[in-house]
């Protein structure tokens, strides 16, 4: 059975993806919250073999320590799902807190780079594999009050395209999955725990849920070996572009 490593696996899209692909993959579940990781691992180990790694993707040393010191039987990683990512604040560039802006670059861009660089030696050894990067509609469109979040996702798009080119000779597929509005902890984190503000984002229409994107990721992974889905954007039915929603 192939091994898949998923970051941000304790909630939202990451958790839904872990559950969805558990029947077909052994799983390395990564997250910051040790207790939540143990809970998810206990659940999923009824379906498949699970190994957990607790680190913050923005902590370079922690990422490399955890991944390079994987037990040998967990090193043959075939699938990397770079899901960990956050938005911090929704404010104009002039009003935004610099700490928030840095956190988004540290997690969404540098974190993705650290994890990928740490996992790549295993993929390269096997001359096959698949990297799936969670982008966003914010990686294709820039909206007001989101300059740095959008910049971080544009970076994910560029890294995805660049990695695909560089990894061509090594038989490794690279895909960007770009969701629109998905009802997860995303908005709660963006609005720093303000549940009412977070709920407003998804009011008046049926948003996507983590399971919808998990379906997309499973579809991307289920393609025949010669088929590489380069990128895929998924909206709720009521979403027209990054900021346009039909609300009832
Ligand atoms: C999350 C979607 O539209 O809030 O990446 O940027 S959006």
UniProtKB/TrEMBL annotation:
Superkingdom in the source lineage: Bacteria
Read off the PROSITE patterns from this record.
ADH_SHORT (PS00061)
Name the InterPro entries on file: NAD(P)-bd_dom_sf, Sc_DH/Rdtase_CS, SDR_fam
Q: SUPFAM superfamilies annotated for this entry?
A: NAD(P)-binding Rossmann-fold domains
**Keywords in alphabetical order:** Oxidoreductase
The family assignment reads:
Belongs to the short-chain dehydrogenases/reductases (SDR) family.
PANTHER family xrefs: ALCOHOL DEHYDROGENASE
User: What's the protein name?
Assistant: SDR family NAD(P)-dependent oxidoreductase
**Per the UniProt entry, what species is this protein from, by scientific name?**
Flavobacterium agricola
Starting at the broadest rank, the lineage of the source organism is: Bacteria, Pseudomonadati, Bacteroidota, Flavobacteriia, Flavobacteriales
């Amino acid at each position: 059975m192939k091994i898949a490593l998923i970051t941000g696996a304790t909630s939202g899209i990451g958790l839904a993806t872990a559950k969805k692909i558990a029947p077909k993959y052994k799983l390395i579940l990564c997250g910051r919250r040790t207790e939540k990781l143990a809970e998810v691992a206990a659940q999923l180990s009824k379906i498949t073999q699970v190994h957990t790694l607790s680190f913050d993707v923005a902590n370079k040393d922690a990422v490399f320590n955890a991944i390079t010191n994987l037990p040998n039987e967990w090193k043959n990683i075939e699938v990397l799902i770079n899901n960990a990512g956050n938005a911090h604040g929704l404010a104009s560039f002039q009003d935004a807190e610099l700490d928030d802006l840095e956190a988004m670059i540290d997690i969404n861009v540098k974190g993705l780079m650290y994890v990928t660089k740490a996992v790549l030696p295993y993929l390269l050894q096997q001359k096959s594999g698949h990297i799936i990067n969670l982008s966003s509609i914010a990686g294709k469109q820039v909206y007001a009050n989101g300059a740095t979040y959008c910049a971080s996702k544009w970076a994910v798009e560029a890294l995805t395209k660049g990695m695909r080119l560089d990894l061509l000779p090594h038989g490794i597929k690279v895909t960007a999955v770009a969701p629109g509005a998905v009802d997860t902890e995303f908005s709660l984190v963006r609005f720093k725990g303000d549940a009412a503000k977070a709920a407003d984002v998804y009011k008046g229409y049926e948003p996507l849920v983590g399971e919808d994107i998990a379906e997309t990721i499973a579809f991307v992974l289920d393609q025949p070996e010669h088929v590489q889905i380069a990128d895929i954007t998924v909206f709720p039915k009521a979403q027209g572009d990054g900021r346009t929603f039909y609300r009832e």
